[in-house]
Amino acid sequence: MRSVRSVKSVKNVKNVTGKMLAVFAMGAAVSGSALADASDLVLRYDKPGAKWTEALVLGNGRLGGMVWGGVEKERIQLNEDTLWSGEPRVLQRADTLAALPEIRKLLLEGKTKAAADLVNQKMLGPWNQSYMPLGDLLVEFDAPGAPAGDYRRELDLRQGIARVTYRCGAATFTREVFASFPDQVIVMRLTCDQPGKISFTAKLASQIRHKTTAAGDRLVLTGKCPKHVEPNYQGDVPNPVVYDDAPDGKGMRFETHLRAQADGGKTTVTDQSLRVEGANAVTLLLTAATSFNGPHKSPSAEGKNPRPLCERAVSAAAGKSYLALREAHVADFRALFDRVELDLGQTDASRLPTDQRIREYAPGKDPALAALYFQFGRYLLISSSRPGTQPANLQGIWNEKMRPDWSANWTLNCNVEINYWPVEVANLPECHLPLADMIEGLKVDGARTSKVMYGARGWMAHHNADIWLTTPPVGGTGLWAIYQVGSGWLCHHLWEHYAFTGDREFLKRVYPTLRDAALFYMDTLIEERHGWLVTAPATSFESSYRKPDGEVNWVCMGPTMDMQIVRDLYQNVVEASKILGEDAELRARLEKDLKRLAPNQVSPTTGRLQEWSEDWENADPRNGQVAQGWGLVPGSQIHPRRAPDLAAAMRKTLEFRRPWETNSCASWTGSWAANMWARLGDGDKAAMVLDTHFKQALNPNLSAHFMGGVDWEIDGNLGITAAIAEMLLQSHEKKDEGGRMKDEEIRKDSSPYVIELLPALPKAWAAQGSVKGLKARGNVTVDIEWKNGKVTNFKFRSPSPKPVAARINGESKTITPEKLQ
Question: For the segment 136-192, what is each residue's pLDDT rounded down to a tens digit?
C-alpha cells in the first residue's frame, strides 16, 4: 500500500537525520542527496538562484529568509514581521456620519451615481502603510582556486532546512540554513570535508537608512523605517518614501545582529564586516528585532528597545552547539509538519529539478506535484504564522521591496482570509492563532470607526489593514474602500477554529468579538423596498454592475456577498450564545433579523446566482471576482444536497464567469474557482484549475506570481492548498435541513457535521492514493486510502470520540472515531 511506503519514508528520514546530525556535529560535509533520497518533500535545483523568485524560502513565523545559494557569494534576503513604515494614526472622518443618511436616501431612490459621488467625497481616507524589507546577509567567499562542480541546492520541507553542496577541486563544501522558532535566530552552518578551507567576509545591508558597527564579537546593523511610504499602486509619485530625520523623529527602529562561531581559523569583526579565515567549520547566528510595541503605541516614542532583544537571542543561541540548535529546530518543525502525509502517486517527473519540473508540467503527468504543492502550502503557514507572531500578510513574511505590491498588507475582502482557508483542515490549528489575535486587535480602532463614522455599537473593519490595525476606508475609490464586511468575514475564522477544534475556552475568549461584530450590523442594516435588511452603502468585492438603463456603477445596497457574510455571522453568534449560555435577548433579536436578511436569489433571466439584490449583470463578467460564491466557499449556505437550486445556479455562474481564465489562476481567482468546484463535487474541473495554476502561475521556488509584475501573492499558494484538501475531505455540511445547528445537536453527544471522504476526487488522482492526518470539523482526524476512485480504507480519530455522520463512497454512515492518543 502507498500509505505503508509513506510511513517507511518517515522512518528512513529519521534514520538519515540522525546520521547527518552526527556528521555535522563533527564539521564534515554530507552529500546533498542523502536526505533528498529519503523524502519526496524536497525542492531540488542544480544551480544557484538568480532572482528573488528562485531563492529558497525559510521562516520561523517572525524572521524570514530567502536563500540564493551562490558559490562565490551567498545572499539571504531578510524580513522581520513587525517592520513597517508609519506609526499609529486616528483616521476616522467625522463628516461621514452626517453624510450617511443622504447616501442611503439616494440609494433607496435608485440614484446610484449621486450616491457613489458622495461616498467618494465623504467616506474615503488615506492609504495603509507598507511592510518593509529588513535587509540582507551577504557572504562573499574567498576564491576556492577551482571551478565549482556537482552543485546541488535544495529545500527540505519536512525539516525546514535549505542546503547547498558543491565541489571545488578535491574539497566538498556544504551549507545549511534554517530559521529556528525555538531559538529565534536564523542559523547558517558552513562545513568542508577538508580542514581550514572556509574563509569569507560577511556583511549586513539594508535598503532602509542604516549603519553598521562592531559590538564585541557581533556585527550590528541599526536603522529606522520611513514615517510614510506611498503604496506601489500610486505609481511614480514625488517622494514616495519619507523619512523623519529629527532627533525624536517618527519611524520604527530596528536592529540586526550577526555572530560567527568558528571551529579553528581567525575571526575579526569591524564596523563594516565580519571576517573568518581558515576555519574548519562556522556557524553564523543572525537575529533581528524592532521597536514595535503594539499597534497603538508609537514605535519611536513608546517603542521597545530592540538591542537587548537581539543580544539575548544571539547570546542564548551561541551557548548551544550547532547540533543542539538543529535538533531543536527540526523537532519543533516536524511536530507540526509531520501531522499530514499525502500520496497521489509518483512518475518520472518527480526526479527532475523543481524548476524544470514546473516548466515541463503537463496535466496528468505529475500528480505528485499537487501533493508537493499541498505540503509546500503547509510549510508556508508553519514558516509565516506562529503563535505570538503577526499573521501572514499578502506575501507571508517575505518581501524585498521598499514599496511592496499592495503594500504587502492584510487585504480583508478576501486575501488574508484565503491565506487561512487551509490552516484547520491541514491540521495546523496553532498557526491560525495569529489571525485570531489580529482580529481581536482590530476591535479597538474598529469600535471607533463604528461609532464615529456609522453611529453604531460594536466594531467593524473595511477593506484593508496594516500593522497599526486601522479600520476606516482607505483611499482611491469606494469600489473597494467601503467594503464593510471585512470584520464579518474575519469572524468566520474565529468560528471555524472552534468548529474544527471544539475548544470552548477559545470560543469563550472570542465570543465578545463575534457578538460585537454582529452589533454593528444590527445597528446599521437598513430596510429596502422588499422589506429586506441590507448593508448600505456597500460594494460587491470590487465589481461594477450594469443597470438596465446602461449605467455602470458599484455602490449598492445588500450585495449577495455582504448578506451571506452577515447571515453567517448572525448564525454563528446565535450558536455560540447557546453553547456558552449567554445573551438570550440578543440571540432572540438575531434569530428574528435572520429571517429578514436579503436572501440568495436566482436570476429569473439567466438562471445564475445574482450578485446584487437587484437582477443586474456584472459590467465586466470576466474580471475573475465571483463575489456571490462566498456562500459556497468559504460559507456553507450553498450546498449541492442542502440547497440544490442555489448550487445549480452557482454552477451556471461559474460556467459563465470562468474566473480561472483570469490572471492565470494565480491568486484569489484560481483559489476561489478551485475550491468552488471542489465544493460542487466536480473534481475534474477543480483539477483543471490546478493544472492552469501549475502551468502558468508558479515561480521556480514554488511561490505564485500574479498579474502586472507582482512577484508573489501568497494566497495563490494557500488557496490552492485548501482546494487540494477540499477535493479529499469536506466537513462543512450540517446534519439538519436548514444548515444550522439545532438545540438538541448542542445537547446530545454527537457532532452536527457530516464528514465526506473523497467528495471531489479527480480522475487524475483516482487510480490509487492515500492521505493521513487531515482534520474535519468536530475535532476528527481523518486518514483515507483509495483505489480506482473508491475509498478502500479509512480511520477517524478524536481526542473526545462521539458519533459522527459520514459519507463514504456515496453511502451515509454513522461512525464513532477511535480515541486519538
Answer: 999 999 987 778 999 999 999 999 999 999 999 999 999 999 999 999 999 999 999
| Sequence-distant (≥ 6) Cβ neighbours of residue 449 within 8 angstroms | 92, 459, 460, 461, 462, 471, 472
R_g of the chain computed on alpha carbons: 27
Q: Is 289 helix (H, G, I), strand (E, B) or coil?
A: strand
- CA distances, 767 to each of 209, 785, 809 (Å): 57, 11, 15
Q: Can you name the residues that pair with 814 across neighbouring β-strands?
A: 805
Amino acid in position 554: W
- Provide the pLDDT confidence category of residue 13 given band limits of 50, 70 and 90: very low
Beta bridge partners of 200: 141, 276
* 393 torsion bin: left (phi>0), alpha (psi -120 to 50), beta (else): beta
Burial (0-12, 13-18, 19+ Cβ within 10 Å), 111: middle
SS3 491: helix
E strands, 245-347, in order: 253-263, 266-269, 274-279, 281-290, 341-343
For 359, residues 6+ apart whose C-beta sits below 8 A from its C-beta are none
Structure confidence at residue 662 (pLDDT): 84
pLDDT in tens, 302-333: 999 999 999 999 999 999 999 999 999 999 99
Peptide bond into 634 cis (omega under 30): yes
- Segment 332-375, tens digit of pLDDT: 999 999 999 999 999 999 999 999 999 999 999 999 999 999 99
Amino acid 749: pLDDT: 64
Task: Please say whether the beta carbons of 68 and 76 come within 8 A.
Answer: yes
Q: Which domains does the chain have, with CATH numbers?
A: 2-84+130-337 (2.70.98.50), 96-129+364-741 (1.50.10.10), 745-819 (2.60.40.1180)
Alpha carbons 5 and 413: distance in angstroms, whole number: 42
Q: Which residues pair with 75 in a beta bridge?
A: 138
Angle 367-384/683-696 helices, nearest 10 degrees?
A: 70
Helix (H) or strand (E) holding 782: strand 780-787
Q: Which residues contact 555 (CB under 8 A, 6 or more apart)?
A: 107, 112, 115, 116, 119, 478, 482, 537, 538, 539
Question: For residue 141, what is its C-alpha cell?
Answer: 567567499
86 CB-contact burial (10 Å; exposed 0-12 / middle 13-18 / buried 19+): buried
**Count of C-beta atoms within a 10 Å radius of residue 819:** 10
**Contact assessment for residue 397 and residue 61, using Cβ atoms and an 8 Å cutoff:** yes
Beta strands in 536-605 (DSSP E): 545-546, 552-553
Q: What's residue 751's pLDDT?
A: 85
Helix or strand run (H / E) with residue 671 = helix 668-679
What residues contact residue 308 under an 8 Å CB cut-off, 6+ apart?
none
Q: Over the stretch 55-78, which tens digit does the pLDDT of each residue have? A: 999 999 999 999 999 999 999 999
Cell, residue 152: 546541488
Spatial distance between the Cα atoms of 694 and 662, rounded to a whole number of angstroms: 14
Nearest-CA neighbor of 536 among 121, 110, 126, 125? 110
Question: How far apart (Å, rounded) are the C-alpha atoms in residues 413 and 486?
Answer: 6
- 156 pairs with which residues across the strands? 42, 161
CA distances from 257 to 141, 222, 284, 398, 642 (A): 20, 9, 10, 19, 57
* Nearest of 201, 221, 203, 202 to residue 212 by alpha carbon: 221
CA–CA separation, 120 and 539 (whole Å): 12
Supply the mean pLDDT for the chain: 93
**Strands, E assignment, 169-237:** 171-180, 185-192, 198-205, 210-215, 218-224, 228-229
- For residue 263, list its beta bridge partners: 281
Taken as a whole, the chain contains a residue count of: 821
3-class DSSP state of 533: strand
**Residue 816: strand, helix, or coil:** coil
C-alpha of 547 from chain center: 36
